[in-house]
Specification:
The chain has seven helices and seven strands. The chain has about 240 residues and is an alpha+beta fold. The strands form three sheets. Strands 2-1-7 form a three-stranded antiparallel sheet, covered by helices on one side. The protein has a two-stranded antiparallel ribbon with strand order 3-4. Helix 1 packs across helix 2, helix 1 crosses helix 4 and helix 1 runs antiparallel to helix 6. It starts with 6 loop residues before the first strand and ends with a helix.
Amino acid sequence: MKCTFDLICVSLFLGHFSIVFCAKDEDQGPVIPPSKCEVCKFLATELKERLDETGKSKEVLELGHGLDTKRKKIKYNTAELRLIEALQDPHICEKILDYNIHKERDGSNRFAKGQSETFETLHNLVDKGVKVDLGIPYELWDTPSAEVTQLQRECFNVVERYEEAIEDWYYKYQDQDIMDYLCRKHVLKPDDQECLDETWKPKGDRGDKSADKPHKEKSKKKKDKKKLKGDSGIRDEL
């Protein structure tokens, strides 16, 4: 079986038989490094998610020495401790390694958590007892790709370079979206912000389902007509 240039062929051995399974190439082919926009987008996404986890806390911290009679009280939501924990416990960029490359998706949507469609299919085959030969050990299938590891490296650089901007947002501008404040206003140039507006819609998600309504209403009218015909028939017989 011959595969096109963007496919890989996988030999599947079923007892004494073997077939070739062709799937989209996830690890081979040219490596497309992450753009600065993608780096900032996923850094902001992870920071927002981590802060959202503690954003509803009503805890009040008391600052000062043990012998102080008057200790300074501050809300945890705006405390330095919360920001430090969000950025460093563990480091926010460590979360980037949870992403995988989904080459079936376009733009920045190629970076997403969870297995790609291809590797999900291959894992399912292995779970069913099918021997799949990719030319690499099975335990290395889910190791971060070159694009993801580079995304993480650049994430560390952005955090270090724009730490002051992140702190300004946290202490003064939390009413603004972190992605807008950090990425649009500080990190990216106006013509480098396209990826920030990209969203992923799963297959089968058609959004507005109102298109189905006319069909349903039409079917209902047909049923009502049939009912009327049936009723008139009974009256005639009587």
